[in-house]
Design goal:
The chain is of the alpha+beta class and 426 residues long. Helices cover 41% and strands 20% of the residues. It has helices at 4-9, 11-19, 25-65, 71-104, 141-148, 153-159, 170-189, 203-209, 234-238, 296-313, 360-365, 389-399, 414-417, and strands at residues 124-128, 151-152, 166-167, 193-195, 200-201, 221-222, 227-229, 245-247, 253-262, 281-291, 318-322, 334-342, 347-356, 368-370, 376-378, 380-388, 407-408, 421-422. An eight-stranded mixed beta sheet has the order 1-11-12-13-16-10-9-4. The protein has a three-stranded antiparallel beta sheet with strand order 5-7-6. The chain has a three-stranded mixed beta sheet with strand order 8-14-15, with no helix packed on it. Helix 3 (25-65) runs antiparallel to helix 4. The protein is elongated, with a radius of gyration of 27 Å.
Length: 426
């Protein structure tokens, strides 16, 4: 959530930066400021009436001591009380409307964020490795998985519906191996503390990280309990310190956690959405950082590098792109997407989105730290997939497929899977 003081101090500057996302957002700023003006005016009128009521109350007290008739003054106080109540209702309504609008306004793009309208304007920052070259026609993961007996989309659809899958045999073991590999890498080599968090959260946690109210139609909700299935581990992990004031000496805090993720949106059928590429339920290992204001951009670069290390150790060709202003996620001020090459798709697939949210999320969840001068400041929060398992799974199968239909996985996974080769007979 944006700081209302920023909107008051520099409305045109804020409108200009938000317009780099979407020109329509400028009108929302004007609406917030109009509500803010009405609310502050109501507060001024309420304070004036309260002062007048106090003055008359003193007169009533003096009159009663003198034995005078104070009924007219008492009636006047009752009228003032009614006016105060009406103004309070008006001020509260303005405050609620302003708060709801602020929750609906996305974060400001960072000053260094490239300006653009869509994904086509995202610059490529760097690439790593080479796309594999085959002396046979490469298959996509859906065909490979079915022929190897490790992916069963029909069973997933039969049990639940489309965009669900059953991993079988070595397929299930490979998913488990990847989760363990990622957790060990980030906790052992990169200094993150592993956490195991609930997969259901209260609505205020989703408000804190920005999924609600904006994306309420994309999350699964249990109305009876008013709990939500998490769309990503970012939600429970970032909220671990909601409404806390942390000592600056504890920062940065780095967490890594594995969770299944649940999302209603699954895209339209067709190329780019088949198989594991876009699912309603998928596994992810998430990296979360809580930092001070000064170091968050440096921590973003480090976090992105940690996610890249996954693909480097697995020997997968990938590229890093920086999202332009028009393609930024709702709460992000700066984002790098990491896209891995999937030969069977003939395309890059996003496997990690590494974002700095500045104080946007922390302000929504009341997460602060005490700086060196003893002042309470809002933390900066960051997160990134380390990585999303479904698309990593796709890239592994399609990159390491052999001419005979088997898959020879990279050596780094052998300690976790107990083997490298997955073949129809295994």
């Amino acid at each position: 959530m944006l700081d209302i003081r920023l909107l008051r101090q520099d409305p045109q500057g804020i409108q200009q930066r938000l317009s780099a996302r979407n020109p329509d957002l400028a009108a929302m700023v004007e609406e917030v400021l109009a509500l803010d003006s009405r609310r502050r005016d109501a507060e001024t009128r309420r304070q004036h009436l309260q002062s007048e009521r106090n003055r008359i109350s003193r007169e009533i007290g003096m009159g009663k001591k003198a034995g005078s008739d104070t009924s007219a003054l008492e009636a006047e106080v009752r009228g003032i009380n009614e006016g105060i109540e009406q103004i309070g209702t008006e001020a509260d309504a303005c405050d609620r409307a302003q708060h709801e609008l602020l929750l609906a306004i996305p974060n400001l793009p960072h000053e260094a964020c490239p300006i653009g309208h869509s994904a086509q304007d995202n610059p490529v920052v760097r690439q790593w490795g080479e796309a594999p070259v085959f002396d046979f026609a490469p298959k996509d993961h859906t065909l490979l998985g079915q022929q190897l007996g490790i992916l069963d989309f029909e069973a997933g659809a039969r049990i639940t519906g489309s965009a669900f899958v059953v991993y079988r045999g070595l397929g299930a073991r490979l998913e488990r191996a990847l989760i363990a590999f990622l957790l060990d890498l980030h906790s052992g080599n990169h200094g993150y503390t592993e956490v195991n968090v609930p997969h259901l959260v209260r609505p205020e946690c989703l408000v804190g990280t920005g999924q609600l109210p904006k994306f309420g139609d994309q999350v699964y909700h249990s109305p009876t309990d008013d709990l939500y299935l998490i769309p990503t581990a970012e939600v429970p992990v970032t909220n671990l310190h909601r409404e806390e004031i942390l000592d600056a000496s504890r920062l940065p805090i780095r967490y890594v956690g594995y969770t299944p993720c649940f999302r209603r949106e699954a895209g339209s059928a067709g190329l780019g959405t088949r198989g594991l590429i876009r699912m309603h339920q998928f596994d992810k290992v998430e990296l979360v950082k809580i930092t001070d204001a000064e170091s968050s951009m440096k921590e973003l670069e480090t976090l992105t590098g940690h996610a890249e290390t996954v693909l480097q150790q697995l020997g997968l060709h990938y590229r890093v792109i920086e999202l332009c202003s028009g393609d930024l996620g709702f709460g992000s001020t700066k984002t790098y997407d990491i896209e891995v090459w999937a030969p069977g798709q003939g395309a890059f697939l996003e496997v990690s989105s590494c974002s700095n949210f500045g104080d946007y999320q922390a302000r929504r969840m009341g997460l602060r730290y005490k700086d060196g001068e003893g002042k309470n400041r809002f933390c900066h929060t960051l997160n990134g997939s380390g990585t999303a398992l479904a698309r990593l799974y796709v890239a592994l199968l399609e990159t390491y497929q052999q001419a005979d239909g088997s898959v020879l996985l990279p050596a780094v996974l052998e300690p976790y899977l107990g083997r490298r080769l997955i073949s129809p007979s295994s």
